[in-house]
């Protein structure tokens, strides 16, 4: 019975100690109430606060005294959050605290690796702080976005051979404040042409036909021994060939930037043999 009582009172002491500790912590917080109606703006490295005369602004080990209506804390890391204490020894006797976050820096141009339906982006962390990144993308229509806490992102289920506008935005320590975007324009690789076939041959020419790949593409590159041509059609006649010779032709779809190419498809055929070989 006594044992229980003494344990109970021991618990009571613990409880009272916790309450006192709580009130003490609450009291020290109350000494720095959130600032009301404080006008402020931030850049990547500065916090500008509109104050009255005789004010001291401090954050961490940095402090600044101002007797004008604008106080600036400068030289801060981009994307970083600072608890700023505003103490004004004037008629209004302001004594309050607010968190301010500087704007994250703009990331350097990311590296992009394309496939037909995905884009892999990677970039280096910008100077200062970044809690994560938002990657925005669209191909003219409604945009989508993706969040990542690492310095890379994979965007999937895209349309083949299509231009995408990508924006990579750094998010500050407070997980809210965003930096200015870095924008890049990239094409996914066009798909492979289908049904590539030899429709006909003569002694000096080959007539090829194919079907357009899935998605989008701008034109086709037709290449073979001594042959290189571009066409927007899905068929072509290659002339100036030698009779009875084996030829291979590769047809590759090219994207709108005239540079991004997909996988080629190849067909092999013999040109017709010269008729004199059959004797006339
Ligand atoms: C501002 O106040 C802090 C502490 O309240 C003090 O350490 C600092 O010297 C003051 N700074 C200026 C510029 O008056
Ligand atoms: C700030 O300005 C007030 C009035 O404008 C003046 O009385 C006071 O001495 C100034 N304080 C400092 C530290 O310059
Ligand atoms: C500042 O941010 C810290 C950490 O998120 C939070 O604990 C604190 O309550 C904030 N203070 C004010 C005055 O907003
Ligand atoms: C081949 O052609 C047929 C008929 O035109 C079409 O349905 C099919 O999708 C084509 N195949 C490829 C791989 O493009
Ligand atoms: C090339 O075309 C042929 C004939 O249409 C098709 O069967 C084949 O899948 C194509 N190659 C590739 C890599 O898609
Ligand atoms: C075909 O287009 C490419 C660009 O993708 C260009 O470099 C090349 O010169 C063109 N070839 C011909 C024969 O026009
Ligand atoms: C397909 O590419 C062409 C040429 O680059 C472009 O004009 C067209 O808008 C694209 N269409 C789609 C659906 O992306």
Structure description:
- The chain is mainly beta.
- The protein has three domains: 34-102, Sandwich (Immunoglobulin-like); 111-187, Sandwich (Immunoglobulin-like); 194-273, Sandwich (Immunoglobulin-like), CATH 2.60.40.10.
- The protein contains one helix and 22 strands.
- It has one helix spanning 2-30, and strands at 33-34, 40-42, 47-50, 55-59, 62-66, 70-73, 81-88, 95-101, 111-114, 119-122, 132-138, 144-148, 152-155, 163-171, 182-187, 194-201, 206-211, 219-224, 227-231, 235-238, 246-254, 265-270.
- Strands 1-8-7-4-5 form a five-stranded mixed beta sheet, with no helix packed on it. Strands 12-11-14-15 form a four-stranded antiparallel beta sheet, with no helix packed on it. The protein has a four-stranded antiparallel beta sheet with strand order 19-18-21-22, with no helix packed on it.
- The radius of gyration is 35 Å and the shape is rod-shaped.
- It starts with a helix and ends in a 10-residue tail after the last strand.
- 25% of the residues are buried.
- Residues 1-5 and 19-30 have low confidence and may be disordered.
- The protein binds 2-acetamido-2-deoxy-beta-D-glucopyranose (7 copies).
- InterPro entries: ECM_Regulatory_Proteins (IPR050991), FN3_dom (IPR003961), FN3_sf (IPR036116), Ig-like_fold (IPR013783).
- Pfam families: fn3.
- It comes from Salvelinus namaycush (Lake trout).
- Keywords: Receptor, Repeat, Signal.
- Residues 103-191, 192-275 form the Fibronectin type-III domain.
Short description:
Residues 103-191, 192-275 form the Fibronectin type-III domain. It contains one helix and 22 strands. The chain has one helix at 2-30, and strands spanning 33-34, 40-42, 47-50, 55-59, 62-66, 70-73, 81-88, 95-101, 111-114, 119-122, 132-138, 144-148, 152-155, 163-171, 182-187, 194-201, 206-211, 219-224, 227-231, 235-238, 246-254, 265-270.
């Amino acid at each position: 019975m006594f044992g229980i009582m003494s344990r109970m009172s021991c618990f009571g002491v613990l409880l009272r100690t916790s309450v006192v500790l709580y009130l003490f912590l609450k009291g020290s917080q109350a000494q720095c109430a959130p600032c009301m109606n404080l006008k402020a703006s931030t850049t990547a490295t500065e916090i500008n606060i509109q104050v009255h005369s005789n004010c001291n602004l401090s954050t961490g080990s940095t402090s600044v005294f101002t007797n004008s209506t604008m106080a600036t804390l400068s030289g801060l890391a981009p994307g970083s959050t600072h608890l700023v204490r505003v103490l004004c020894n004037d008629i209004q006797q302001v004594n309050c605290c607010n968190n301010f976050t500087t704007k994250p820096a703009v990331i350097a141009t990311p590296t992009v690796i394309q496939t037909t339906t995905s884009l892999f982006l990677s970039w280096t962390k910008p100077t200062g702080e970044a809690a994560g990144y938002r990657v925005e993308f669209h191909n003219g229509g409604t945009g989508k976005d993706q969040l990542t806490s690492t310095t890379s992102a994979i965007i999937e289920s895209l349309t083949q051979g299509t231009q995408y506008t990508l924006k990579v935005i750094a998010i500050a320590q407070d997980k809210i404040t965003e930096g200015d975007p870095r924008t890049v324009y990239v094409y996914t690789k066009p798909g492979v042409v289908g049904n590539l076939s030899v429709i006909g041959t003569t002694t000096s020419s080959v007539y090829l036909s194919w079907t357009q790949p899935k998605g989008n593409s701008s034109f086709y590159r037709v290449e073979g021994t001594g042959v290189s041509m571009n066409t927007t059609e899905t068929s072509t006649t290659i002339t100036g060939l030698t009779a009875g010779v084996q030829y291979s032709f590769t047809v590759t779809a090219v994207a709108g930037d005239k540079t991004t190419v997909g996988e080629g498809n190849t067909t092999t055929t013999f040109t017709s043999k010269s008729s004199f070989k059959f004797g006339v």
